[in-house]
């Protein structure tokens, strides 16, 4: 499967409610971002570290399992993270309807 | 606002797709759980640590902001965490429809 970085950035950042998109490589360095340099660096480092801890926690609980998506909802916005070879951080002001409440 | 632990446990665990509910206190110790003792302890510790890191990351990025909800989607299930005085961990096999993709 090919992954067009610019196409992905354009597609996601154009969605309603999306405030910013940051795409980082496996080492946590941003390769594309709609945030400024300083914020991109901060988000990249903090979120990459959080994803790593989440991956470790999931594997510790069940080594046959793996993290596929992480959503960090805050008072101000929501950060959505799709971990993979390339990680996509999406800061979204929208709200997902919780299916279980 | 009062919080009826047993009522909450019953309400959430009865929802479609919910496999387990763990309610822990501020120190990370489980006060109610539908999992066995060992799994409850494992989940409690790992998820409480993850929540703490997420809270710290959110505060570091913006000290006026705060974590309100964390969702950890894995290949096998989804863990939903509502941090507060009491944390609720919900392991759900359901899938939330992503609003931005």
Automatic annotation (TrEMBL), chains A, B:
Gene Ontology terms describing biological process: microtubule-based movement
Start and end residues of each Roadblock/LAMTOR2 domain: 5-94
Cellular component aspect of the GO annotation: cytoplasm; cytoplasmic dynein complex; microtubule
Subcellular location: Cytoplasm, Cytoskeleton
GO-annotated molecular function: dynein intermediate chain binding
Domain of life: Eukaryota
Chief location of this protein within or outside the cell: cytoplasm
UniProt keywords, alphabetically: Cytoplasm, Cytoskeleton, Dynein, Microtubule, Motor protein, Transport
SMART domains: Robl_LC7
PANTHER family in the record: DYNEIN LIGHT CHAIN ROADBLOCK
Function, in words: Acts as one of several non-catalytic accessory components of the cytoplasmic dynein 1 complex that are thought to be involved in linking dynein to cargos and to adapter proteins that regulate dynein function. Cytoplasmic dynein 1 acts as a motor for the intracellular retrograde motility of vesicles and organelles along microtubules.
Family: Belongs to the GAMAD family.
Identification of the protein by name: Dynein light chain roadblock
